[in-house]
């Protein structure tokens, strides 16, 4: 099985891959376009060469041949370092994404430096299953009806007379039977079979086979969608939550896209916009002073009313609240800005549509009075907040463009915002981060 944890690039920043893999990627481009869903790949040209480009997704693409392509965030300008640093940062960011918070960075940190990203994911899944096995598989009682040679449980007289009128040695009974054959175990068994077939790591393969032996008495799920509907994670099954979250990813081969359903992908791919949003939301909450609070994905307002119906919900990524009062609206954008390009043509790399969006948020959530902000990753060309933007026709509304440092996990803000909206300073947040054991 041929795998590639990372691919060398040429002088133009292009990565070469085998022709069969490239042809498969082109086929995926066409299928995604025909399906009408989110286009995660696109075909283009660069310097006279055919190129396939991944659009705003990160993670692992696995071709049918087993060839793996890691799509890492473009963080070289943000944190420095190479693929290992980008891989570790991606794992830390994924920990903040809804549906993926079961990743444990402490163990993944060690593995990330020497394993391809897909093997890191597989190792994390196997670790969660191993913890369940060490604690013992949870069995359950199920009601069974059988025609037995001995009376067991309750005799079902009508069925007994129907089937055993001439068989005095049989009893048609209904009884409770304790078994580990339950949907949770069927799903884990199926996921173990799946990772054993796709893993290229000898250690992962060996552990997967050992764990499969524990589930030998349980048939692997053949209908995962139905079995997931039957999962019941009560208090005694809470330890299964992480492993089943992994199993859902492995069996469905879906990317957990927060907020707008799930994007079907042939491998484990994650939308970078939402990964960045979740990362900022987790760490920005530590910069907010009480009694203020941070709310993610607010949904309180709509853009218009039509025939007594509210249309076009306004959903800012982040909202700072003081009790029931909205005081600051923030939106995250995964894009690298250049603060030196302040001319009318480049406009730092900012998009006009984002300004329209924040203006609508300010009018609805802040009644046109106060501050709204766009948050971008901090880079060597965008280290400090840009000068404030004023809306000429909304005199009381101002827009800020702020850098978020991926390394220190803090948002850089001008003193005015720090004072007006109850944020801790960067130095205070850095101290808090250093003592945070989460």
UniProtKB/TrEMBL annotation:
PANTHER family to which the protein is assigned, alphabetical: PROTEIN MCRC, TYPE IV METHYL-DIRECTED RESTRICTION ENZYME ECOKMCRBC
Protein name per Swiss-Prot or TrEMBL: McrC family protein
Lineage of source species: Bacteria, Pseudomonadati, Pseudomonadota, Betaproteobacteria, Burkholderiales
